[in-house]
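Q: For a teaching session next week I want to show students how multiple molecules come together into a single three-dimensional assembly. I've collected the sequence lines for a complex. Could you give me the predicted structure tokens for the whole thing so I can convert them for display?
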Amino acid sequence: MGQDILEITINSVKLILIFLMMVQAVPILVWLERRGSAFIQNRFGPNRVGPLGLVQLLADAVKFLTKEDFAPDKAVRSLFYAAPVFALIPATLAYAAIPMSTPISIAAFEAFGSTWGPYLFRVQGYEIGVGIVFILGVSSLAAYTILMAGWGSGSKFSLLGALRASAQVISYELALGLSIVGVIMMYGTFNLSEMIQAQQGPFQFSAFGYTIASTVDWIPNWGIFYQPIGFILFFAAAFAESNRLPFDLAEGEAELVAGFHTEYGGFKMLMFFIGEYGHMMIAAGLATTFFFGGYGIPGITAQELQQVIVGWGYADQTANILNAVLHFLMYNVKFAIFLWIFIHVRWTLPRFRYDQLMDLGWKTMLPWALANTILTAIVIYVVAA
Amino acid sequence: MTSAATSMPIGGIIFLAIFIAIFGTGLIFLARAIGGQRKNNSAAKRDVYECGIPGQEKKESKVSVKFYLTAILFILFDIEIIFMYPWAISFRDFISSGMGTPVLISMGVFVAVFIYGLWWEVKSRALEWD
Amino acid sequence: MTADAFLFWFLALITIGGASLVILMKNPIYSALALVFTMCGIAALFVTLDAFFVAGVQIIVYAGAVMVLFVMVLMLFDLKHEVEAFSKGRITGAIKLATAGLLAGLVMGAIFYSSTAVDTVITKQLAAASGDPSKQLGMRLFTQHIFAFEALGILLLVVAVGAVALARSKGGTHHDQR
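A: Of course. Below is the structure for the complete assembly, covering every listed component.
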């Protein structure tokens, strides 16, 4: 995790901060979801507690905390209590691998009688060489949370909900995994930072030995222009992976009460919520990274921006940090747009029926993802020849 | 720090996992301490959810074999997709080293088998839900 | 003890601990969950060997796919009778002993074989290798092991066909209209 005590400490604090960031983003998203749904359905939504109902989040958290801790008699208590804790782990582990800004380099300095550094701190939990494989693997562990909760509750509604949810999650994992093969092929790497590097600068690619570039600067070199089908498939599969409408079959109230968390209440329920929103954030972060240039700002590369900030009269060190802050803001803008799309879709589309859901996953999205892969391979082959 | 392609800070991952586990367990205990227990502790309350009538079925009821079939087919297709990843990552290198054609053809054969498998599953109605 | 050595012993300990839980737990569901834990530990051990892609695949395929099926099946069947049948009687005891002996022999054999045959060669190759190991894996897979790769595709197809055939054979839920 680092060479010396300072780097290890900062990296550990960074990991904890990312986790806390995810946890505190959930009440904001819940507020946004409730206000947004009210806006879409021509209602007011929560607007009593504090300005715009913003303090509602705090009230909700207190309410959740003061709820009685309850487990039904038939529940298998160890699994019943372990499931909500495990709901947090895969989502956070995967999200921590997504780069959120340019790395901050700190030059060597003297303190406490010894030389420290130089350091390179990345604005992400940890940099992983096989980033995509790691994220896919870790988030596939989320199926156990669902199964543990469903079986541990000892209720047939929970069990059925868990069964349907896990069958759905694994079905769409295929389409998800296949839809990014084209992306991997294009960038030739599993590493998310390298993918973002490849998307910096204006729109430009080489074909048949010629270089084709856009005449204007502000069209970025984003993956969406090369992989539109891949993006649509990825984003649709991500909805199913995070159990959101229109794929929230696990919680179809009319048939399954509340799916695998029927028996849960209070704070344990909230932890499932955090897990679900965590998967939504992973999907938003990955969509940004693969197809929308990650933290990149359209029209200007990270190096150019660094020069511009230095030109404003800041020292290299300060400019580097300012640069990272600006890129972090850009990342969050893209991230927030995707999260809003998630919320908007939830209140726009009706729910699928279970057989339609499975048909869509296996018979529509999987073949299309395959077609996208083959097409990408052939185009890359022909263009490079 | 090593180069990006060859790094995986396992220590950080384990640290984060353990931290969340402890944090989550702490939250559960905190909620338990603050929430407390109510006086009403009747059998009806402690029973699992049912729509107002006593629970009828056993928990271990029979479930459609479809779910297992879906899971098995998922494993198989997942392995095939995983095998495409090393191909996808090195495809450009193969092209630049002049080996693009044989690799494309060999992957084409693999994908053809994949497509035949998927087509067969659809045709044999193994993916029908009713 | 260096950090790497500590990491290895820590991971080895939790992996073996998980594996012991698999055989010591009475409830098969806990056994399966312990096996998931063991798989994750093995993936972490792969990482300490710099085999990042293999570690990811270990998690995706074993922990994320195969064990999901196991856990799903175990949770849906009432295995009490089977558990009783396998935990009593003289014959099962003999089978257990024989299995344990076979497994111990296998593990010992593997250790002896690997210690004599593999180590010198492998370390030399690793030292010579450079660049992205995932790319090297791809290169190796599509040059030296291309036949095995294609054969694997056929094998997976055969397994898929077999699974569907098995699911249908005893009625299943198919209403065969043909």
